[in-house]
């Protein structure tokens, strides 16, 4: 193998050789540059392969003498990986910058080569002064490469950078010489071995070196100079700066920490945390894409610094975790910057240009996922390991702050993605350059490859290789096919997976599996209605289904959490597809990720560092932590079920989603939360925190959700919003049932799981069909559609009978079990609330029939047709199933009943052939059906007789009787239908929760807006910041 | 105070004076000069740290034989380092001067406050 | 004003850090292990009489290569920066008033001597104080003198650039030869160490220092020429 010194020698030699070429031979010079960078990458790559294959780290002596007398370099696994990263980034950026480099000539190419060489030098060297030399080379090369930019402001940015770099180099040089004086060596390993910080004068010398190297990480808040460069430099150079320079600076910081020893680890952690949080908060207020990415870079680098500072507990897994975060950041950020060069405007909105370019959108999504540490990318494995180590060691503050910072980061990145997909498209198409696009795609490929590698070395089954995920990803490659073909494939896939996994389910899991896979397939029938190719629908939809199906199969916590993330991401993209869903999708993903972080923290607390961790072992969690684990997990799952307080994302997200997406995210996705709660309660049982029983709290939350959800549903004008709010109420019922922690409560909850899927899917489809035909979702704009859309009417009628729990449909079964359950428990007060919310459900359900299908037909609706066949078809399936389920509920439930008896033996039901008996009475579905049928027939006949002499009233006779009203809808009888109730109960519908969360985000945003003024743009001020940073670190260190 | 500590103290004083100038004077040329002063201070510190009182330059000749060298010469390492430091300082200074020239050409100003179009 | 006060306060803080260093500093009575090694073994290891030179060129040769690169980089960037600002072609530049007789004659007389001194300084770098950087700077001062005499004098950019690049490239090649033929990158023992104290001794050190001298001279010259060709905006 070629000695690693050749990476440096080739870079330098080629740079010098460039000077020999005539200035006009630019093509040759460019070819030489590329060849040199490729050779450097190849050497680094060959070392990486060899070191990964088990070769130990190799020391490279220069001049033939041992250190510390001569400079030594070291090539180990981290060094090889980062050298490869740096030289590849350089190579790709050189390809990307072809035009600029050819214009500026060989000098610019030489500067680029030297920059890459110097960065590799920083990585390899083990000598403190040599580190200084390479850092200075980097500084000067940066000063040169900034000028590659076409932006005239880059000149000022470069100068500011040089000013700050001068301050840094003074600190570093003074530190190095005193460290040499204290230890008698310039070798970093010698300094570490001599325990520099304990020597006389050594501590301050170390402090100076450390603070100077950390300054190269552009720590928040002393980083105005770096942001100006990020904003104004050529994007390909910003890519080098963000990916390669950050990597080099981090490894330099790591070398410093190896000298500083354990005493300095907390300092590094704190500086990293401040950077991570601060930079991410400030990024919230940014509108310039490159500056925003700069902030994000600083935040990510801060996070890696935290990891380096936690090495006392991470131990041997430090390189895996730090490397995962760092490489994911580097690939993503380089990719982002390269992508930004294709976008012609600098505002975030200008990125709407990417719309209509699925490949570029996919690239963007990949980079976001890499940055946020979503599965299956390396950051996911890294955060998983990090959080577990922190939780096991009790470093809760660090853990909490990291999760908070990650959430803020996902806030602005996801918001940006929402802009791209939803905001009005700008008229500046992305640059057509093929080579630049190829560079971006290389980054995408590298991201996925890293995901695979991290999966291989993680010790877990590789996330990327799970069949459901591969199936979902496969849709990316058949996006060019018409939608109906893809739909067929999707349905077949769900069915096949159900058939394949069927033998492994116990009754409880089978219910969920059937809803997800079979139920999902039924909803997909409605998707045949879509025309064209429907690009961007199937990959996320199938990702969501993959996540759901993996969730119920998951045994260990890792698989569980990965599945949870998949379904969250997939559903986010699905929801975002709705016309006006941008803000709702954003709040959905933020609540979901927040919930996911709660789950992650809960699992990590439960695992106590023991990995892999079987979810069932949560039962063995130490008593001290168990209630906290329970609370965290419950909050996480309740975010998904939209329990009151965490519900504000749901109405918009469900209502604005596409017609066939609403039933997916409502009928199926909400069940993921219930599944989690089921598991949690089954495993951990009742927990009390400070004397309060947590299941009792959940009971209250469930009851309040039911009440408020129903109440809010009653006051909606928009039919889909009504259904969405009703889901909050329904989930409240289910939560209540589970929290009762007895046999009947659970049976009822599971009954709700099935019922809610059926009627909510059905209602969303029928209401969606009506909305599609009428062009509105406001109910008062509809009316009298019964004759035009009879099938939709039947579906809604059956649906609301089922929801409201009146006989004879299965909803009544649910209620019956429910009342039995309540009778058998002692929670009287929340019970009253639950009872109260029952009638309220009637109020809103009644409106669906009354306002949409009955009453006068609107003039503009006279020519409407029935909803499309493909929407009607699944509804009819549901109708049939509801009727069947009403007659023989035992089909599914008796197995579940038997299963639940294992956990709650008391109060089991007795299943005879057609009657079900409980302690309080019996329920015979068939006789009820007969009785209700008779009553209905009698009443219907009586109505016919009475209606015989009814006089028909013409429409609009009120409206035209006086002047034209300012807001015509106010005169419609169905508008504000429940005004009296609103007067009485309106206080309960005040958007207090929305206001609370709004206040939180406003607070963050105004913090960001105020603190960004700190970066005045004056280079001198930035230098003062840097000095103040150093002095502050010194004072804090002295103080501790 | 020995010569060595005096040299180091002077070096530090130069660093502080240089930084004071660089951080308060708004003219970028004066900032560059101030940084040069600070760099000189650092170099002085470097040399000072390598000084051993009463010894001679680390060159082996008739006056200092190889056998006596260890007892008679000063520490040669800082002297080697300072050369590198000087050259690097020179490089950065030249670069800053070139920048200053270009900034003046494009903006007709040498006031650091002029170049704040990138901020926040 | 507040700003100055704040800066002074910060510098006081930095001063406190420096004071801490001073307090913790006691001059060594003996050489430390590293320096001691150099004192005892330089002659045998490298054959150089000037220990500092041995450290610069051989022991810490990588630093020095970096140092040379810094100059190369700076020269390249200065040329880039200034090239971007150069608009008019050189022919149209307004001639400055002619230099005085004294300067013209003096520089004609001195320039060759200065060049000679420069060569002497870097060729003897391994024996006496001096070396490539010093010698190179002296070479460049001859160029400066000539430029002062006639600012419009046209220097061969091409020649400067070839000298600069070729010497740099050969420097790297010598370094690589160290890996192949001797103990490591930039090992000077690829050539015989020769007689201690002779001009042609110390292995590759004189060669390297000559290259550095030429390179540094060329780089400084190139920076000076770039700067002199820059127009003041009218």
Q: Write down the overall mean pLDDT of chain C.
A: 83
Structural class from helices and strands of chain C?
A: mainly alpha
Q: Helical residue percent of chain C?
A: 55-70%
The biggest beta sheet of chain B reads: none
Mean pLDDT of chain B: 88
Taking all Cα atoms into account, the compactness measure Rg of chain B is 20 Å
Give me the strand/helix succession of chain C. Answer: HHHHHHHH
CATH class of chain B: Mainly Alpha
SSE order of chain B, one letter for each helix or strand: HHHH
Which two chains share the most extensive interface? A-C, 66 and 66 residues
Unreliable stretches covering 5 or more consecutive residues of chain B: none
Distance between the termini of chain B: 48 Å
Basic shape of chain B: elongated
Distance between the termini of chain C: 35 Å
Q: Classify the beta-strand content of chain C into a percent band.
A: under 5%
CATH architecture of chain B: Orthogonal Bundle
Number of domains of chain C: 1
Strand element count of chain B: 0
Query: Number of helical segments of chain B?
Result: 4
What's the short version?
With 120 residues, chain B is an all-alpha fold. Chain B has helices at residues 3-24, 28-50, 66-72, 76-107.
Q: Could you please describe the fold and organization of this structure?
A:
The complex is a heterotrimer of chains A (1040), B (120) and C (234). Chain A has 1040 residues and is mainly alpha-helical. In chain A, the strands form three sheets. Chain A has a three-stranded antiparallel β-sheet with strand order 5-6-7, with no helix packed on it. The model of chain A has no long low-confidence stretch (mean pLDDT 89). Chain B has a single domain (3-114), classed as Helix Hairpins (Orthogonal Bundle). Helices cover 70% and strands 0% of the residues of chain B. The N and C termini of chain B lie far apart (48 Å). The radius of gyration of chain C is 22 Å and the shape is globular. The two termini of chain C are 35 Å apart. Chain C has one domain. Chains in contact: A-B, A-C, B-C.
